[in-house]
Write a structure and sequence with these properties.
Helix content is 57%, strand content 7%. Strands 1-2 form a two-stranded antiparallel sheet.
Length: 123
């Protein structure tokens, strides 16, 4: 049995597909967004500092070392160099914390409603 996942796209369109296709759509979307941020110079190039190791290991189950941090910094800097967007008409919208909380609340309500309807239809 193939499990379907939903993805709410711009303009309210809902894309339903399997996990792998939804994952690829989101990865492509994040790549475009990252390129957009690089083009708009919204990302400050990270640099290594020893304090990053301690800050990164605040959560006990995560074990991050100096090399992990340096690899991550190199990856970000390489992605900036490979950014495909030279000029763009994209204009991403940002949200306040309250707007995001409202959005999540609406999504949770929709999920609960969906589960409730499925449950009613099974009886």
């Amino acid at each position: 049995m193939i499990k379907l996942f939903g993805l709410n796209l711009l303009g309210g369109k809902i894309e339903e597909s399997n996990h792998e296709i939804i994952r690829k759509i989101k990865q492509k979307d994040f790549k475009i967004f990252a390129d957009y941020l690089f083009h708009k110079e919204e990302i400050v190039e990270p640099i290594y500092e020893d304090s990053l190791v301690n800050k990164s290991n605040v959560i006990d189950i995560i074990n991050i070392n100096k090399e992990d941090i340096k690899k991550s910094i190199n990856y970000i800097n390489e992605e900036k160099e490979k950014s495909l967007i030279i000029d763009t008409n994209l204009d991403y919208e940002t949200f306040t914390q309250k707007e995001i909380e409202n959005f999540f609340s609406e999504v949770i309500d929709d999920i609960v409603k969906f589960i409730y309807e499925i449950t009613l239809n099974e009886n």
